[in-house]
Amino acid sequence: MGRDNYRVLVVDDDNSIRLLLMRILEGEGYTVRTASNGREAMSLCESHKEPFIEDVISSGLPCSSYVTLQTGELVYVVNMPIHIHLGQPLALSIALHTYPALAAVRSARLHMIVLLIINAAMWGLAAAFLYYMKKVDTLQLTARSKERLTALGEMAAVLAHEIRTPLSAIKGFAQYIRQGQDDKTTEGLDVIINESRRLEGLTNDLLVYARVPELYIRPISIGGLIDEAIAIVKPDERIMIEKKLSLSEDTIYTDGEKLKQVLINIIANAADSQCGKITITAAQGKRMLNLQVTDTGVGMDARVLEQARKPFFTTKARGSGLGLPIVGNMLSAMGGSVSIESRMGQGTSVTVTLPISNGREAF
Ligand SMILES: Nc1ncnc2c1ncn2[C@@H]1O[C@H](COP(=O)(O)OP(=O)(O)OP(=O)(O)O)[C@@H](O)[C@H]1O
Ligand SMILES: [Mg+2]
Fold first, then answer.
1. Among 38, 85, 162, 251, which residue has the least CB neighbours within 10 Å?
2. CA-299 nearest atom, ligand 1
3. Quick one: which atom of ligand 1 is closest to the CA of 340?
4. pLDDT digits (tens, 9 = 90+) for 117-165
5. Mutation pick for ligand 1 pocket among 234, 269, 348 (CB with most ligand atoms within 8 Å)
6. Which residues contact ligand 1 via a Cβ below 6 A?
7. Which atom of ligand 1 is nearest to the CA of 326?
């Protein structure tokens, strides 16, 4: 926009400032006059009826704007009407160097940003600190509970070992005395023999659970292993048992005794589940074997399913609660895993996944 019609009067006793302002304002298109003091300014006003002055005086309103100097510096120019005692009305033009103020604002902004970053970093550090403290707490708890379980396991193993010898003596003598006794005595001795057998089973389970499993890899037949496990469990004859084998080779290399124990424990649970049918599936992948035992029994609710693998958890009157923990121990020693799916009233499906080797390499 052209400013040729606007005239500005610059009053300052400093010659260099007057000159500077004049250049700036002329650069902006103003017609500029200068005066070194009030008197000179008044006489100038007398001799030149400046339209700008008249405009400012008549409106009584100041005007201001930012002007960039040729040096690139920004100055704030204010034009305002002034009334001098008994004198002519004048216009005062003041140029303010905004650099120090802008520098202060910039530095305040910088401080603000630095403060915000420090604040955010502190919050982040505090959150990380809390997170790691919680993690350390959990790890310490887990370590403590592992230590306790290890100690308990060792104690159980010693106890089981010490109980086993006198127990087999009790059972053996009861079996010996039983011969040729009357019915009443036989009945009592049978109770001793059966309970001794049960305790023997429990001590065996405890020893198996407490012992760190060592692996003995050899070739085994999967079909044969499943048949052996079923024969040992001897499920009720009314339970239908179906086997589905989809194997490229029946022989695999693994610790057969441990895998048999795993199958025995899982099939025994299925047989205990009041089911009508047990389906055993074996499928072979490239380097994995999947074994699944599915029953149509009572199933488990969420609470039982969550606890089922914990040592000594049982819902059975004569159960030890060590069946599934032994399965878990043996499979982890063999590099395998077990997963359980169950629905109340519909049945349970236990899946074992096991790495297998072709015999030339260890796994
Ligand atoms: N197939 C299944 N159907 C229903 N419940 C099951 C099944 N398998 C496991 N469970 C539940 O999990 C619990 C723990 O099983 P686990 O085999 O560890 O011990 P247990 O069978 O009770 O005792 P043990 O194996 O010494 O006879 C069982 O008591 C039962 O409640
Ligand atoms: Mg069991």
1. 85
2. 4
3. 8
4. 999 999 999 999 999 999 999 999 999 988 887 787 788 778 888 888 8
5. 269
6. 205, 265, 269-270, 273, 295, 297-300, 304, 308, 313-316, 319-324, 348
7. 18
Expressed in angstroms and rounded, the spacing between residue 300 Cα and the centre of ligand 1 is 9
Q: What is the pTM of this model?
A: 0.61
Beta-carbon-side half-sphere exposure of residue 143 (alpha carbons within 13 Å): 6
C-alpha angle 26-30-32 in degrees, rounded to nearest 5: 70
Nearest ligand 1 atom to alpha carbon 202: 26
Q: Return the closest-CA partner of residue 173 out of 182, 181, 183.
A: 181
**Atom 9 of ligand 1, residue of closest alpha carbon:** 269
Task: Give the distance (Å) from ligand 2 centre to CA of residue 322.
Answer: 7
Q: Are 60 and 81 in contact (CB under 8 A)?
A: yes
Q: Delineate the domains of the chain, giving CATH numbers in brackets.
A: 7-97 (no CATH), 104-210 (1.10.287), 218-355 (3.30.565.10)
